[in-house]
């Protein structure tokens, strides 16, 4: 007598794909659906029970319902030249009326009452494009988290300051900015005076005094810039100090 055709619908129907790397547990999902008008018992079996964990591996499906079966492949040393010979079988059985002993039904079931479907296992490694995409996604996630954390820290520090402290910081910033501007004006005036003196003295090209004056003028600019940078660092130090306190 011919075996009954599988009543359950399987998704996927023929293959269970596991995508590596296989240094950790890899899980794929098998969906079983009962389109019939009766309850159906099911079991999920494998030819390599030590390599897989299946949850649930058995149960009952009411009419028109589905169940997601998680198939977890345990970590192993993957050899791309070795083809997988692992297979799974979904076995099903129409549930008798007014019977609750599912294990007893399986034991007493006749071979012609059983329905089964077989699936083979396929192991895949991610392509280079997928690896790059995963790395980029991780970088984007990490950058977004860092920006969010920095923004939260700044908001927390700002909220810790009262209005009087904020006012003091702003006044200190204005005073230091005015000091920077004063130094710039003095530097500009020094350059103009030095240039005037040089034009009046009209030194001969290549004379030592002319070279010394030129070096003096060149050194004026960096000195003032250093002062300006020092003042800016002082401003930042005051602001950071206030935020920390």
UniProtKB/TrEMBL annotation:
UniProt membrane topology term: Single-pass type IV membrane protein
Locations listed in the record: Endoplasmic reticulum membrane
Keywords: Acetylation, Coiled coil, Endoplasmic reticulum, Isopeptide bond, Membrane, Phosphoprotein, Transmembrane, Transmembrane helix, Ubl conjugation, Unfolded protein response
Annotated stretches, region: Disordered: 130-153, 190-215
MSP domain sequence ranges: 7-124
Matching InterPro entries: Ig-like_fold (IPR013783), MSP_dom (IPR000535), PapD-like_sf (IPR008962), VAP (IPR016763)
Transmembrane segments: 226-244
PROSITE patterns: MSP (PS50202)
Any one of the GO CC terms: plasma membrane
Bias (Low complexity): 141-153
GO molecular function: FFAT motif binding
Record's function text: Endoplasmic reticulum (ER)-anchored protein that mediates the formation of contact sites between the ER and endosomes via interaction with FFAT motif-containing proteins such as STARD3 or WDR44. Interacts with STARD3 in a FFAT motif phosphorylation dependent manner. Via interaction with WDR44 participates in neosynthesized protein export. Participates in the endoplasmic reticulum unfolded protein response (UPR) by inducing ERN1/IRE1 activity. Involved in cellular calcium homeostasis regulation.
Family: Belongs to the VAMP-associated protein (VAP) (TC 9.B.17) family.
Name listed for the protein in its UniProt record: Vesicle-associated membrane protein-associated protein B-like
Gene: Vapb
